[in-house]
Amino acid sequence: xxxxxxxxxxxxxxxxxxxxxxxxxxxxxxxxxxxxxxxxxxxxxxxxxxxxxxxxxxxxxxxxxxxxxxxxxxxxxxxxxxxxxxxxxxxxxxxxxxxxxxxxxxxxxxxxxxxxxxxxxxxxxxxxxxxxxxxxxxxxxxxxxxxxxxxxxxxxxxxxxxxxxxxxxxxxxxxxxxxxxxxxxxxxxxxxxxxxxxxxxxxxxxxxxxxxxxxxxxxxxxxxxxxxxxxxxxxxxxxxxxxxxxxxxxxxxxxxxxxxxxxxxxxxxxxxxxxxxxxxxxxxxxxxxxxxxxxxxxxxxxxxxxxxxxxxxxxxxxxxxxxxxxxxxxxxxxxxxxxxxxxxxxxxxxxxxxxxxxxxxxxxxxxxxxxxxxxxxxxxxxxxxxxxxxxxxx
Length: 394
Prior knowledge:
Layout: E1 2-3, H1 15-26, H2 36-56, E2 63-66, H3 69-79, E3 87-91, H4 96-107, E4 111-115, H5 125-131, E5 136-140, H6 154-164, E6 169-173, H7 185-188, E7 192-196, E8 207-211, H8 226-229, H9 237-250, H10 254-275, E9 279-281, E10 292-297, H11 302-311, E11 314-315, H12 330-335, H13 339-342, E12 345-349, H14 356-393
Parallel strand pairs: 1-11, 3-4, 3-5, 5-6, 6-7
Antiparallel strand pairs: 2-8, 7-8, 9-10, 10-12
């Protein structure tokens, strides 16, 4: 099986199995208890927090562990704004965790505005600038678009926000950037930054939110006061330790992995253009993360192609897995994709273990799938014509 849907999730690093077992069987103690073994667990979490913080250019006390990227996004949007009204700006191509949270904030009385993006999913900075004023209390713009790989210039956006609305809080969903491109939250100028474990070979059910020092967050989950009283719950010690292991050991090769994936993405791009007509490329290969690549065909529906490709041993996606069970036109509409291409979107996303032969197999399987679908459509059309003729004769 060739797996090319890594933006949805990644396979677990095998070492994580040993870590999860260790902290579930041998070192299972509750970090909030007072005896020595529990205090060892608490210290292990402190070490893990420092590892995650270092990878972001932050301090340990600025890291809040969460159950997912979506939860981190929710905490950022619902717990950071202290006023009960004001203007909130989010990107129009944001992940559903941000988009749907913004809709809820609109119901609660905030003036929510969706900043336009270009045809690649990158927030249009000139149009964003026109939306910024002293009424803005929160801005959320993702670092890397999960649909197309588009890279937003967060440092430039941060400077604009600080000059136009210095009291506004700036959050970024960094789930598709973390572990794939260098991230330094201080240099980016963000106040809040969301990351997720299962996108980088750590377990599902663990993530983190960077929260700048001295930025007040309201309590999200009430209880025993864990995670600086923001998210109470007994800490997910096994997953936290596995997450920190992946970050500490696998993030050392980010630069080399990036270059390898870029070459792979560029090869895919050239092969698609050489082998297929009527194809629309939704990814700006000159300014995006190479880990995510999107294109569209007007000859078949994306969801149908996904199933055809799976039958041939190749797994890809049509876009965010969080929207996989929903029929949505939001992203194609935000990107300005024509109707005949909008239904045929395919997302290919890589990890460092993918190879050129994986791309070759994908191209071959895609060609075969399209040929089969065209034949099927032609047969169906012939049957319809036959039935129509008989009806006319009657």
